[in-house]
Amino acid sequence: MRRLKRNWQPLLASTLTAISAAWLPLTQPGAPVPIQGMTIALLLLAAALNVILTLEDRGHAIRAGVLFIGAHIPAGMLLSGLDGNEGQMSASFFLMITASWLLAWGTVSELAQIEPRSSAARSFLRLLIPAIFGVWILILWEAVTRGAGIPFILLPPPSAIGARIAGSIATLWADVQQTIFKAVLFGYVVGCASGFAVAILADRFAFLRRGLIPIGNMVSALPIIGVAPIMVMWFGFDWQSKAAVVIIMTFFPMLVNTVAGLATAGTMERDLMRSYASDYWQTLIKLRLPAAMPFIFNALKINSTLALIGAIVAEFFGTPIVGMGFRISTEIGRMNVDMVWAEIAVAALIGSVFYGVVALVERATTFWHPSNRGG
Amino acid sequence: MSVTPPSVVSARKLGLTFQTGDGPVHALSNVDLEVRKGDFVSFIGPSGCGKTTFLRVIADLEKNTDGEITVNGMTPEEARKSRSYGYVFQAPALYPWRTIEKNVALPLEIMGHSAAERAKRIERTLDLVNLSGFGKKYPWQLSGGMQQRASIARALAFDADLLLMDEPFGALDEIVRDHLNAQLLKLWARTEKTICFVTHSIPEAVYLSTRIVVMSPRPGRVTDVIESTLPKERPLEIRETPEFLEIAHRVREGLRAGHSYEE
Lengths: 375, 263
What we know:
The complex is a heterodimer of chains A (375) and B (263). Chain A is mostly helical and 375 residues long. Chain A contains 14 helices and no strands. Chain A folds into 2 domains: 2-150; 166-372, MetI-like fold. Chain A has helices spanning 2-22, 38-55, 60-80, 91-111, 119-147, 158-167, 169-204, 206-221, 228-235, 239-262, 267-275, 280-314, 324-333, 337-365. In chain A, helix 7 (169-204) packs antiparallel against helix 8 (206-221). Chain A is flat and about 80 Å long. Chain B is α/β, with parallel strands linked by helices. Chain B is 36% helix and 25% strand. Chain B is built from 8 helices and 9 strands. In chain B, the strands form 2 sheets. Chain B has a 6-stranded mixed sheet, sandwiched between helices. In chain B, helix 6 (174-191) links the parallel strand 6 and strand 7 (194-199). The mean pLDDT of chain B is 89. At the A-B interface, helix 11 and helix 12 of A face strand 5 and helix 3 of B.
């Protein structure tokens, strides 16, 4: 039973390979480029399976390595066999892809059980496992869209999106400069800074705290993106109106979180400051702000995604002829979905980097917090 | 005896009433007490007897509603503003984002000491509580007893003559507590500070104090003040001597007397 549990992916994969071998060819009748090299893939896959089954009780690393090769060489050959045969692949092809995917699954589950001693190996594994995962999303996406001939306009294959990105670097870069470096960064910095400053004022003056914070709570629940057209009317078509939207979107989360954070310092810690006859600003800087840091970083992380959404969507409402939101809205109108996906991919990459940088700074700043210790 | 040392804390008819939803609560009522320079005074009593409240009134963390109190001849507020006491809480209350030495430096930073002066005092106070070499650690990397010692170092760093300690060892186990009690006595002898010490442990109070103030609840009041006859030099074994047991007996009697009307 344990054996079966450990080997079910390769076992199922070999079964599927056997079925698909009985169901050849890989292409439907009448495909323009019938596949010859596929027999090699089949052989390799079968051979890899044999090796794995004989490796039975080896360590996780060896099994993972064999499974990795057994999954990715056939997958690569299968994908290269797609050229010229779009929409002409048979059930046998999809069974083979499924078999390779099962082997990749096996790879990841073996890798996940490795407990490396050195920290370099640990961080390598931490990157490798999600990388294999991500690559297989792309492989399956590619195989299904091209193999089954899904219309380009519904879902272009990742290879086409990649080619579009590579071919439009200049345009994408101009869009990134307009949207990210102008609207998002400016709006994010100003929005977060002013939210923070108002939070300090609200903390200092009771009338602001009692009057503004409830409104802040309410406004931060509103879909603020709705004000985008108004901002375009006020501040014009260029990036300033987008920055204004970003400022409004990021202001309230920062305000609400900072005010909540400033209230987290314990009474004993405050009494301690009082016993030193510490003044308001000393207590703020030495106790309450450090204690509020986890809240403030929470707002910075929420705002990093909000800022990106705000700037891109705001560009739908009027913009000069550059910008990520502009590009998305015009290219979808011209049915250039690959360009839309290219912008989405770039936005996803920048969003992750943005979030990642904030998260890294957070780890360095709030290392003392129980949720960050030990790790 | 020679001349009486000057008074550090002087309370006359001191009272404090909290107004709560269930009506007034008399946390302290009619407390008369004199703490003299160099005294080690323990406050003992069941919870709700106002011993912590009394300490907080001295520290100007609460305001008395009746009577008078002076600290170093000033009102508690003036005394707090002239930084005349160090306060040690029930929990270490060290700031987790600061290393031990930075925690000790906290009051010094607030009071505007120079960096060189801070370094000197950090070294001296950490040595006083036997934490030399732990300055670069973070509080959460140390044991509970070490953390509490660091918080005592923090209270000593700015050389206030009065040390207010609110059940500082209450959360620690018996063995660590014995050890810290002995260390505290040594520290008291070396620094000649005046110490007000809140506890609910009879042996702790008897072992440490020159005077023991027995308190009882509802309303919080002083029922007995016991002068210790123990010598100033006290090894831990003193706790098995008849003299020690005699004082402990008196404290227990005092506590029982304050309690008797309850059951």
